Amino acid sequence: MRYQNDEVSAAAAALKKLFDRAEDKRSVLRAPELAALYDRLKVLPAGKARAEFGKEVNALKSELDQMVREHSSASVVRKPIDVTAPFDVNAPEPKLLPLSSGSKHPLMKELDNILEIFGRMGFTAIESRQLDDDYHMFSSLNFPKDHPARDDYDTFVTNEGLIAPAHTSTMQNRVLKAGKSGLEKGEGIRVIIPGRVFRNEDLDARHEHTFYQLEGVYVDKGIHAGHLIATLQAFLEEYYGQALEVKTQPFYFPFTEPSFEFALSCPFCQKKGCQVCSYSGWIELLGCGMIHPNVLREAGIDPDVYTGFAWGGGIDRLTMMKYGIEDVRYFHSGNLTFLRQFS
Ligand code: DAH
Known about the structure:
Layout lengths: L5 H16 L10 H12 L4 H27 L31 H15 L3 E2 L8 H4 L18 E2 L5 E2 L7 H13 L4 E10 L11 E11 L4 H16 L5 E6 L4 E10 L16 E10 L1 H6 L8 E8 H9 L12 H5 L3
Parallel strand pairs: 1-4
Antiparallel strand pairs: 2-3, 4-5, 5-9, 6-7, 7-8, 8-9
The chain binds 3,4-dihydroxyphenylalanine.
């Protein structure tokens, strides 16, 4: 906009320059150049010249208002930030915490340890999903529709019918399908599946709604329950760094036949009896069994040619026993006093 009055025109040029340079664009509305024009207006004698001058000053003020408004609506687009990154909450500007300030969560540390041992035993690791469906949670695992065994898993379901997996067994069908062609070339399936699982539990020191499991799947020609027991025993002896006894007792899972509950002699008291094993000398650790022929068939694997075993157990439980952690709820509490003990 062009101004007729020389004073207004000079002030307009100065104020626009100021606007371009200012970090806080609103400061132009408080600039002395603008205030001086209003002061001048106050002392002008009434008349045509004053009216003309007043009109131009008001027009300039409106132009500046408009510039400030346009700038602030354009600057709503902010630099993207990673909301999951650990920020220093005390810094005036968003600033990432240095790596040295944090440490691995005890569950993830334990998981690394477990993966490393199974890695040496020839297993590959695949993470499970955190959102799944009814087929992978139940149907592909030989749970008939409306079978009461489905109720053993207090499963969270979304309004759309998606499922927050209640066990890592949801991955069995995928792992079996993916390994089928290798199997036919003579490469056995050896996969472990760590993952986060969810159950609608009544929470207490031993029950959380969110916890971690480790699933294992092994399929090849001629695999039997002896391989299952030896594999788990070899892992546990490596994990606890000592010789252990193991035992199984019959159990029921729809996806294994036979199914077992697997127990080990207490590594903390060598069967003498202690708090960890409830003075029984044994710790019931996980569920396992020979993969049900229907589960193999569902993945396109012929159960008359191939057999396999699977297991699933809690990572939280292993970690709690190892460090004498008394309450599972500490893991998700974000309690720094708890976490710093493991840093
Ligand atoms: N998915 C079972 C659970 O969470 C544990 C389990 C049992 C997994 C037997 C297996 C298995 O792979 O063969 O209760």
